[in-house]
Design goal:
Elements (H helix, E strand, L loop, with lengths): L3 E2 L10 E6 L2 E5 L5 E5 L5 E10 L2 H14 L4 E4 L5 E2 L10 E3 L13 E5 L5 E9 L3 E4 L12 E10 L5 E3 L5 E9 L19 E2 L2 E2 L12 E5 L3 E3 L6 E3 L6 E10 L2 H14 L6 E4 L17 E3 L5 H4 L9 E5 L5 E11 L2 E4 L16 E10 L3 E8 L2 E10 L4
Parallel strand pairs: 1-6
Antiparallel strand pairs: 2-5, 2-27, 3-4, 5-14, 6-12, 7-12, 8-11, 9-10, 9-12, 10-11, 12-14, 13-14, 15-16, 17-20, 18-19, 20-28, 21-26, 22-25, 23-24, 23-26, 24-25, 26-28, 27-28
Length: 397
Amino acid sequence: MPDAYFNFRHDWQKKVVSKKKWKTAIITGSTGQEQRSALYTWPRRSVSGSLHQMSYQESSQIKRKIYKYLHSTWGIPLWQDIAYLTVEAVSGQPTLNVNTTEYTNFIPLSFCILFNENNEYEIIEILSLTNTEITAVSNITKTWPVGTQIYPVINARITGQQKHKSNTSQTGTLNIEADETFEIDNPVPAYLETTPALPQYLEKYVFNIKPNWAREPLQIVDHATQFLQFLGLGCAETKTDEPVMRFDFNFFCVNRQEINEIITFFDYCRGRFKSFWIPTWQDDIIVTAPIAINDTNITIEDIEYTDFWLNNEMFGRYLYFQMPSGDISTKKIIAAPSDTVITVDAGMEYACEQNQLSGLSVSFLALVRFSLDEIKINHSTSHSANMALSFQTVQDV
């Protein structure tokens, strides 16, 4: 168990930043193919927040705790997952009725913390839960009124130097960052892997969550080239047939379900370990003639497809159709009879009339992995957040 608990509320004038981290070992061959190994069995969590003390009592308490326990293990609330009691929790009973536990870090066999405005607190081990009810392993020892705040709590360590900024002689602010720790005295954390609620193509998931267009999506072309030159003529060499495409997308989530959908998928992939599909969300191909059901030949605007894309394996061969009706179709291009006609590997499931073509979007579909093993979520409120994600193409087909 932790030596001390941070029984303080976060100041939502600043964002709560939460992170999840996996660890992947990657060996890259000379041609760009990868061998990846997942090194973590469960993810490591982190949280950072701003704690503003509005009274002498709060400021004094946090200072003395920091002084005594700075080097120790802490119980840190995950401030983004705040819940509230909807019914008074009576001492001697194991049940807590709350507004919601959905899409949060409340997990059976993990711990949560209740505390009030006076920073009095109680630690609860969760036996089981529903969307609106938490059942503790043991009966609670105090009576807690309606509106009491409840947070999931993790065992964590903070850096060995902390700066407390004084606003007045009795109040102040502490910015805290805590990393989950696993030590001999701590139990293995409760972790549940959830199956992503996303479509699949060729037995891999399609990450079809649209990016936030207020933050311009970025595409990067990276072709590893070695240039050798001393005093005379130079020589350039590359061992990869195609460039690596990298994508930087920002996502804005307006509720916990949307936040959880992305985190769940990141956990399923174990960071950089597993590959999946993403559309570029660009109009990479413009269709110029109507599409009928079962069509395999698609008439497109001339982009010199035969010369620039047809011989590729990693990028430019798979398509993501966003039909005017909202339906989605994924296809592989297997031939290009001319620069204005492409042939796909299966008949189209949906039709598109001439007057609907302006509402049709066709993007390249790229097989990618995450570029980083850590996801960072910037929580503006307990129910909204944005996150920046990076992807890069892989040769896993």
